[in-house]
Amino acid sequence: MISETAAKQAEELMALRRENEALSEQLKGLVKVEGRLYRYQEQLDAQLLEHQELYQFNRRLSASLELQDIFTVAAEFIVNNLGYERVLFFGYDEENDRYAVRALDGYYRREECDAVGSLAIARTDPLLTPIFSGEPCVVCFEGRRSPELESFGALMKVSEYLIYPLGTHARPVALLAVGNSPTKAQFCRRVSDSEMALLGIGNLAGLLSSSIENQILFANTKKALEQERLAEVKYRGIFENAIEGIFQTTPQGMFVSCNPATAEILGYRSPEEAMATVTDVSTLYVNPERRKELFRETRQGRKVKSFEVEFYRKDGTRCWVRLSVSPTLSAEGELLFVDGVMEDISERKEVEAAIQLLNEELEQRVIDRTRALEEANAELKQLSGELESAYTDLKLTHSRMLQQEKMASIGQLAAGVAHEINNPMGFIISNLNTLSKYAGKMAQFVALQEEAIGRLCREGGAAEVAREIDERKRGLKIPYVVEDLDHLIAECLDGAERVKKIVMELKSFSRLDESEQKQANLNEGMESTINIVWNELKFKAELKKEYGEIPTTLCNLGQLNQVFMNLLMNAAQAMEDFGVITVRTACDNGVIRVSVSDSGCGIPTDKLKRVFDPFYTTKEVGKGTGLGLSIVYDIVKKHNGEIHVESEIGKGTTFTITLPVVSP
Amino acid sequence: MATSVGVGHSTSRNPAAAGKEAVRKALEQAAIAAPDFVLVFATVGYDQQQLIDSIREATVGAQLCGCSGEGIVTGETFAETNFGVCVMVVASDEMRFEGACVRGIDRKADEAGARLAAQLKPLLADDTRACVLLADGLVFNFDPFLASFQAALGREEPLPIFGGLAADNWALQTTYQYFNDEVISEGIVSFLVSGKLEIVWGIHHGCVPVGTKRTITRCDGNIIQEIDGMRALDALNDYLDPDWMTQWNKSSLNLCLGFKTPEHIRQGYEEYVVRYMAGMNIDEGSVTIQSEVAEGTELWILRRDKELIFSGVAAISRQLKEELAQQKPRFVLQFECVGRGKVVFRESEKGELISTLQRELGGDVPWIGFYTYGEIGPISSYNCFHNFTSVVVAVY
Questions:
Q1: Where are the domains positioned within chain B?
Q2: Which of A87, A288, B19, B154 could form a disulfide with A78 if both were Cys (CB 3.0 to 4.6 A apart)?
Q3: Nearest chain A Cα to B51, which residue?
Q4: What is the pLDDT of residues A92-150, one digit of tens each?
Q5: Interchain proximity B238–A28, CB inside 8 Å
Q6: Contacts of A189 in chain B (CB under 8 A)
Q7: Domains and CATH numbers, chain A
């Protein structure tokens, strides 16, 4: 009994175990299913949310009528709802045949925003080939890359992206690009080419395409209506406000329409009155033949321009009009109506008559005037001769002024030279006086010796004679005379040499009038000039010479010496106390630079710009001609050079001359 | 002045705009111009430094603490998105919030505990009521941290610790912690809450066992190598999706491990303490959890139960309401496990779950929280680490 019960229990236990195992397996399956369920639920939730948001977005989109608004609304939706990090809208730029960025979102650093904002892609870029070949979009992601795709991605600052065409035409009006940067991609909607992944953005691109097409249609319609309205306003304005009469008539001569100007020309108060009164335009013609003439042309379908004709006004007076008409024919060639423009030329006709009269008067006046002019011309000739004479006088005066300046220079020069020559000449003359005295003494001594020798021969007494001679020799200081002779002669020779040198330098300096140009060294010219004017300088300033190595140049050295002299003399005269004059020469890049600086009183800025003007002087009246620096300027210009002046009050002035090196 | 608290949030993709918007809303709710303390939770889609810079710019001078989460929770939203930020601002002459930061915990949780305690100890006062802990969710190990932290603080009564582990939306690469101007990773940010205030809290997980008891037969620290003599992964394989090897973070959410709640905390808690399997090693067949275990420990495989979660939240509501005794909280902190978010609940269910809780405690109470990689909250005066749990802290 017990064993039976135990067996039964064991059997039940086994059954329970089997059931437990089966339940356990079922439970494992249920846990797995539950896990999957949660995942699908999460995906479905996300999809449901996306569809709800897409629906809301579509409603917002419908309310956006401007393309830019559509881009902005869509960009916001793509980033915030679809979850792509970055979005760009490229609008088609017809002028440059390219797509350029029109809107963007998801670029939160200014430098990125600036760089991407100016991005553009040519319509013909191979990157866009898939789109123009019918592909729904361009895709770049981990599983589909190429150097071109990556390169454009780098420009958009994304590593994975999609580009959709927007618009249904063969040439999309815009491109939509969405994508993610490498650092943020994992937190954004990933780009892939799977159907599921492209569903949301594909739907959006479709919605945007329709919306953009609608927008373009709306914009075009609006534009066309506006253009029509503007055209109507424009032509109505032209018709109503034109000065010319504009009209349309039937072949029978009735006005179909006419503007206020037509009515006014014909003397009616309004177009309505004109149209009601004039039932046949042929009655307007003063000469009915002219109407027939015109009608013949228009009936043939030919336009007529500038047809001048005389009309009757409402009050019976006449007026001249110029007609330009254009016929409109039916398909069968029948004249339907005539459009025309009339211009009131009555005044012109009156003026033409007046002009004819005037012309005749004018011809007579021309004859009279010609005669008067001939007389005046003779007087003018005489006046011209006088002017020429005055000009010659002026030239002569100018030449004299120059000569006067030259003479002033020479005067100064002569004073200096005289002083320089006077000094050696003084001691030469003094020495010659002494030599004359010495010569007298020597003659006396020689005479004494002759007389003593004769006496000796006659009378003897050599010792007495010798003593007497010796006594006289001492009395006449013959040994000293003999000794001093050499010294005096040497001194005279030195003096004579100095005079010779001065004369040579004077000769060199005096090449002033030579017009011939020769190769010369400006250092030598400057040195020679300094020697000439040294007497003027030495009491006024210490002279510093800083000569550089300069090549010879083709020049008129006499004229340049004049320049140097004027500058040196000016420098000396600028000194209020004993100062320093510095002369520098240098050559750089084929240009010789000569400067003369002084440590004098300086020239005020307002006077500085006038120093080269003729007759301008800062010196006291009578002390300067005012031509010195003007001559300097002319000479430098003649040598194709430049002269500049820099000055500072109390510190001094520097004149700098630059001359091109000219080879023979 | 007393205490002014406000919470604001933003889901703008632009980090600078999002930070400013969240602060603006928070300041508006608090009706203040400048706060003393700022708490920030944000998700990881943002450029984190740009985000914090914008918040700092709008809250000049205030101390800032916070971390990244998988989603944000406020009275107005519960957004599990890569782009969400919420900010709580406080200006008070009754409460103090004093923060500290530990950088480079480098899986040395015990050292980190001592370092944090060294910084916080001088700030402790008689009126210090709690410590809020926001740690890196990828490298933090709670048990050794707690041991050294509490030892270094040297308090007779443990200071209640609340908080959550920073998350990175399943990327499992980098989480962020915020401290004033700094954005760090592999760190801990913490602050003491002191002053004239009281704290009540509730904790519930809502998981149930599937199958019978199992035993850990080989383990090393927080790595479980064998269960019932089998490689741990083999023992779990029958419950996992076929793609678990490539989708571990999501697959492992459907299962969790339960350990019998220790006797000393069993009163006031559920039967099992739940652990999420944060990592696995295919070659070794092991799984990693976020606290340490010993060989011979009994375990149960658990699954989340929606009804239990709903009833658990209702229980928290009731409990807190009773403890608050009609007093309105100054603010509420919520640390919600990522496993209780959109991976299990539909959007509408989640909304119902959180709004029920918020409604019970007062719809206009400033409320801030985030979806975590692990929750921290005391059970029966013992600080504990949790998974698949909601930790709700009301400060009044």
A1: 3-204+308-395, 208-304
A2: A87
A3: A108
A4: 998 999 999 999 999 988 889 999 999 999 999 999 998 888 888 999 998 788 889 99
A5: yes
A6: none
A7: 64-220 (3.30.450.40), 242-344 (3.30.450.20), 385-505 (no CATH), 515-660 (3.30.565.10)
